[in-house]
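batch job 7 of whatever, protein = RagB/SusD family nutrient uptake outer membrane protein
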Amino acid sequence: MKNLKNYVVLLALLSLSACNDNFLDKKPVDLLTAEQVYSSPEAVEAYFATLYKDLPIEDFSYCNGRFGEFPGNGDGYTANWTWEATNSNNASNNDENWGKLYRAIRNVNTFIKEIATVTLPEATKNAYVAEAKFVRAYYYQELVKYWGGVPILLEPQTAVDGNTQDLNLPRSKEAEVWDLVKSDLDFAAANLPATSVYGRANKYVALALLSRSMLHAGSIAKFGTVDLNGLVGIDPAKATPYLQAAYDASKAIIESGKYSLFNKYPTDKAQNFQLLFYELQGNPEAIFCKGWDYESTRRTHSQDLMALPEAIRSPIGYANRLTPPLDMVERFEYMDGTPGTLNIGTPGAYVHYKNPQDVFKNKDPRFFGSVISTGSSFKGAEITGQRGVIFNGVRYNGTALNQYFDIDKKQIVANPTANSVRATGNSNNGASVFWLKKWLDPARPANLCVDWTSETDWLDMRLGEVLLNYAEAAFELGKPATEALDAVNQLRTRAGIAKLTTIDRTKIRNERNVELAFENRTFWDLRRWRTLTTEFSGWIPNGLYIYYDVNAKDYVFEKTPNGGGKTYQVKDYYFQIPSSERSKAGSLLGNGNPGY
């Protein structure tokens, strides 16, 4: 704690120096008291900047060393574990994350303890404590999602740098951790102002996190099982109060009138949905955002570099790291509300299309706002993904981009000849003909999309999610069907697709799948619904190949499995507690979670 206090005192001194040019008026660091530090608005702002920086927001840098591929670059999305993306690895365990979260919690607890000793108006103190408790709730809801019950620390510990004294407490039950999250967020919502600067918590940000967290906890109680005497899993009797809390928090946001669905471009529904995630400043739907801007935050990411199709990739060469599979694409319905299965036929009975885009005709505009598909344009370039050609009933697969098929020689060649047709596209069709569009900067020139240069902000909480939380909580609580139906139909109307006339669990869940695709919500949904082990048992993601039929002079599509199957076990609903932490804590953490 001494190191932390010295850090805050130093920040305070720097802040004081910035507003006072008289060197003789400056006090040495070791002469500044806690009263002077914590009553300084500049020092408090600096402290909160650190707390927010450490928030485990699951954004472009979500893997952050946790999940393997390209740490820090966004290729480790939780989306990669489900049908949101095809290039996936199972999650790896990262011992560092546990320690990082507890060090961050210690910082919050230190602030809450010290601010109580400072002479400030009670309303000011309460607002500071409320914001700190929002941050602490964010940390704990991350811990409990991953590991179930964890040690609850509400006082700053004497150890620093992750020493064992910090964890010399037994695990609390999972429900007790969720109860702490609720308590902290209730306090935050009651004491924070209704408005705040961009990227900081206010009353409605706290309510949005409460909505999300309590829906998760209520689902665990309703669909999960209790093990280790409640260290993982929640008593089913707690499902209703948790779901009611999610319902109430969501309703408070909706009825406040503070937020509305983004609808700046109503005549182009696809563009409207795409730019919802790009035009965040002043966005009426945005509740809580994380800024990525080198000039003001010294933070950048590499989303554009990693996700762009090869046709417009950067000079570095990375591209196509997130390719939505056919399974995800077909979750998007058609505009008339019919199921989203593509009409492609079967091998030997293909459906032919003159224009590759015709296979997606009348799809939910959210599909076009979220995904780049073959034959569409992005950043002024046509994006094509073609696997090969079919000639006289024989399939010829390409081996590289921009190849040709020599009709006379009946072979794939690198360059066009006197009698040839295009055999492959300008972007990879090794897995599918889809590329991620959501979160890409539409205005950034492709040649500038290099490593660590993207500055698109992350939209962490928005009204769209709150409406879906409200719909799900209302349905699971047995509220009148019109409540869930109206909430879901607000999103469908904004999207430009047919309203639902009836509502059920499957429809609500599919609406979440498409509305929140690639927002790092789906994997947690599958976990809390406990469907990961059933819906994805032995699951193999499907890609979509496109071939040019030389004889018919049109295109055909072929569904194809991509990679090996995935296997999920019941134990995968929780991560194993890091072995290093179990070793340090001895019997207090036991053997960790069941099944490992």
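notes: The mean pLDDT is 84.
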